[in-house]
Amino acid sequence: MVAKIRWCSAVLGVVAALTTACGSEPGPRPAAAATPEPAPLDLSGVVLLHHSEKTGFDEIVFADPASGAAKTTLSLPGYDSSLNRLDGPATKLDLVSPDGQYATLETYEGVDVFKLNAADRRYERTGTVPAPERSMSERASRFRNPQFSPVGSKLYFDDDESVYSVDYRQLGRPVVEARIEPNTSSDQHVEDWRIGPRGEVLTWRDVRHAEDRLAYLADSSGAIGYAYYEEPGATYQFVTALDATTTLMSAVTGSDEHGVLMRLTLDGGTPRLTKLVEKSEPMIGKVAASPDKATVLYQTYQGEWFTSPVTPGAVARPAFPQLPATGRWSLVGWA
């Protein structure tokens, strides 16, 4: 009897073991490791346009103002064909919208518009503003010199005859904003039109003069919105407004003056000049002022970088020690 009980117990144990092995639910699996979130986009600092030798396309780089190290790099499916990208003053709005969500390039086909895809860290083309319509007897041309408005959602550009605009958030047919009145300067760096701080189009149709050397455009508030100053052997072009009657200017021509920075104040119709940074060698190609107007960043035609405070007698010092030497870099502005 005892043996029988032991045999039954053994059978029941085997059955229980088989039931546990075959019929029970598996234990919970360990949780999968969470995918790390990408670093947030930092759209501040110095804005650079970089032509990648690897892809043949351009990239927009937001760099640290002190070192030149890239904080955010956003790819573009295209490249810039502007001939004057390395000339004169620079502004972020030549490339990037005020909020950084849109970008534009001048191409051989027209003006390209891109929208930021933050998840993929790139700008994606939303469309192209093609060449303006012309009759058989009219000269063929294309839109060029794109610039975002500092307010609203307009993108401006020209066809050498008129300034046009489109809503860059929803591209449509370009609208004529103003006819171009060519400036009287013999220097090619002087622009034929400018966008004021309130988004108004400034043209030389409304030019004002002071002592025959200063020609300037005023915005709707009467403040200087763009200017150039000529003296024997040198032409100075507008960099930024410091206040309603004071501008920061840099020499864009003149073998002895090229690269000189000066402050110009319009005092009762008379321009007063103060040299800030004396002659810089090699020659300066691009200039951009910091948002607080206290610092200026230079790029030379040889691809070197310098920075300087905006004070009389300031000395330009080498900048951007961490900027890679590969590819072509162009100063765009300060975000």
Key terms:
335 residues, mainly beta, seven-stranded antiparallel sheet, five-stranded mixed sheet, globular, disordered N terminus
Write up what this structure looks like.
- The chain has 335 residues and is mainly beta.
- The protein contains one helix and 25 strands.
- It has one helix spanning 2-23, and strands at residues 46-51, 58-63, 70-75, 88-89, 102-106, 111-117, 122-129, 144-148, 154-158, 162-167, 175-179, 193-195, 201-203, 208-210, 214-218, 224-231, 234-243, 246-253, 261-267, 270-277, 284-289, 295-300, 305-309, 317-318, 328-334.
- A seven-stranded antiparallel sheet has the order 14-15-16-17-18-19-20, with no helix packed on it. Strands 4-21-22-23-24 form a five-stranded mixed sheet, with no helix packed on it.
- The longest helix has 22 residues, at 2-23.
- It starts with a helix and ends with a strand.
- Mean pLDDT is 84; it is low at 1-24.
